[in-house]
């Protein structure tokens, strides 16, 4: 007897209908396994490891692994803070950054809205943490690589030269952070110079420059960090942010300080982790880095495995498919034929880019160009969340008319102290001081 599956008249096979039904079901969150290893030389590397964390500010670190932390309301957070000129900035940032980020996200959002709001909140949280730390009058600074995992979505915010890479289940490698060493980033050199900083190498007798490019005063090799008040405001805390969505095949994150990356290239680090669980993989990477170059610097590595739930079988890595991808495939559903979609919910190993932005300009980073714009309190400071009365805030757009055709709202807005911070980072205060000094010089 011949059996027909098109009982509803659609002509679609029953197997396809069942697969589509599975696609419409709630996607389960992945299992998160992680390991961390540190070899200390200066005692300035610090980590933050939270596998279950509430989305509400003030509850982040205390809710780790708690029984009351419902899976639907939790995220995972992993970070490395590589301090320099002391550990004060790294410790302060570790203790305050997460709450500052979460406080910048409005309550009662859907999961999709929360994901859309996160990149902006990360910028606000980084800048607020830096601004608050300046009141401590400490001269240290820190790099930050800050990773938030929300289901299958991974968001990475970074300043400095600690790095985060992702290896998908298929074996393709993705860079999720930026390198803010002056030697590695010509655009940052131009920005620092335009903002009033001087960039050059250490001069020796005869005028020859040695060593890496540095920013003067201070001699810092980085263009972005938290802290470093003695160097200048042109060393900004505005992070590069990248947000991607993994398929349910999962992947592995390697987050490490420059003690690792100065000794190992990314492919070497990944090769050393083959077949090892997260803790053993982190230990192997640190061991090989120290063996290669010696313990010249604090050397720290976090390995995070994002795995399918236990009842799902992760696909095996296909040999010969490895490679580097700086660009991501956008909206895989747009690129798949109906036949491909019928054969499965989605491709087994597609990493989809949701968001990426690296500009150091606050006006660009805080301006909302997506529908989530109306989720934010209109008159709160976009950085420190200070509640202001209508008319008190200063538009991040500066001289742009408040009710222009481009931006009829005129916001987002900053309080007066955050506006001063913004102008200092953009070099406007330096420019004004230079003009004032020039006017005082007798002719």
Automatic annotation (TrEMBL):
<dbReference type="GO" id="GO:0046872">
    <property type="term" value="F:metal ion binding"/>
</dbReference>
<dbReference type="InterPro" id="IPR015655">
    <property type="entry name" value="PP2C"/>
</dbReference>
<protein>
    <recommendedName>
        <fullName>protein-serine/threonine phosphatase</fullName>
        <ecNumber>3.1.3.16</ecNumber>
    </recommendedName>
</protein>
<comment type="similarity">
    <text>Belongs to the PP2C family.</text>
</comment>
<dbReference type="InterPro" id="IPR001932">
    <property type="entry name" value="PPM-type_phosphatase-like_dom"/>
</dbReference>
<keyword id="KW-0378">Hydrolase</keyword>
<keyword id="KW-0460">Magnesium</keyword>
<dbReference type="GO" id="GO:0004722">
    <property type="term" value="F:protein serine/threonine phosphatase activity"/>
</dbReference>
<keyword id="KW-0904">Protein phosphatase</keyword>
<keyword id="KW-0479">Metal-binding</keyword>
<dbReference type="Pfam" id="PF00481">
    <property type="entry name" value="PP2C"/>
</dbReference>
<dbReference type="InterPro" id="IPR036457">
    <property type="entry name" value="PPM-type-like_dom_sf"/>
</dbReference>
<keyword id="KW-0464">Manganese</keyword>
<feature type="domain" description="PPM-type phosphatase">
    <location>
        <begin position="58"/>
        <end position="306"/>
    </location>
</feature>
């Amino acid at each position: 007897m011949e059996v027909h599956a098109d009982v509803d008249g659609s002509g679609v096979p029953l197997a396809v209908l069942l697969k589509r039904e599975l696609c419409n079901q709630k996607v389960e969150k992945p299992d998160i396994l992680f390991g961390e290893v540190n070899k200390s030389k200066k005692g300035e590397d610090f980590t933050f490891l939270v596998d279950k964390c509430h989305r509400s500010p003030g509850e982040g670190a205390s809710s780790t692994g708690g029984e009351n932390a419902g899976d639907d309301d939790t995220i995972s957070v992993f970070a490395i803070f590589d301090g320099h000129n002391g550990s004060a900035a790294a410790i302060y940032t570790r203790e305050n950054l997460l709450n500052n980020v979460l406080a910048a996200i409005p309550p009662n959002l859907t999961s999709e809205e929360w994901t859309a709001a996160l990149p902006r909140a990360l910028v606000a949280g980084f800048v607020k943490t830096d601004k608050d730390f300046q009141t401590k009058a400490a001269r240290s600074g820190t790099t930050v690589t800050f990773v938030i995992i929300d289901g299958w979505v991974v968001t990475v915010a970074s300043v400095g030269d600690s790095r985060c890479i992702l290896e998908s289940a298929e074996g393709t490698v993705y860079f999720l952070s930026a390198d803010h060493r002056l030697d590695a980033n010509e655009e940052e050199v131009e920005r620092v110079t335009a903002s009033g900083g001087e960039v050059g190498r250490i001069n020796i007798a005869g005028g020859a420059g040695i060593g890496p490019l540095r920013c003067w005063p201070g001699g810092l090799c980085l263009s972005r960090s938290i802290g470093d008040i003695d160097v200048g405001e042109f060393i900004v805390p505005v992070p590069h942010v990248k947000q991607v969505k993994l398929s349910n095949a999962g992947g592995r994150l390697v987050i490490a300080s420059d003690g690792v990356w100065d000794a190992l290239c990314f492919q070497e680090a990944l090769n050393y982790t083959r077949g090892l669980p997260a803790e053993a993989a982190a230990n192997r990477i640190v061991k090989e880095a120290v063996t290669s170059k010696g313990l010249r610097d604090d050397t720290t590595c976090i390995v995070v495995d994002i795995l399918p739930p236990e009842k799902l079988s992760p696909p095996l890595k296909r040999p010969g498919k490895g490679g580097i991808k700086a660009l991501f495939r956008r909206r895989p559903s747009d690129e798949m034929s109906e036949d491909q979609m019928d054969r499965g919910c989605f491709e087994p190993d597609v990493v989809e880019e949701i968001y990426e932005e690296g500009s150091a300009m606050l006006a660009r980073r805080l301006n909302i160009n997506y529908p989530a714009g109306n989720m934010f309190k209109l008159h709160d400071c976009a950085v420190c969340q200070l509640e202001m009365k209508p008319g008190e805030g200063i538009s991040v757009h500066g001289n742009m008319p408040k009710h222009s055709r481009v931006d009829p709202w005129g916001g987002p807005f900053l309080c007066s102290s955050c506006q001063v911070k913004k102008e200092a980072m953009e070099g406007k205060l330096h420019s004004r001081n230079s003009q004032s000094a020039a006017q005082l010089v007798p002719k």
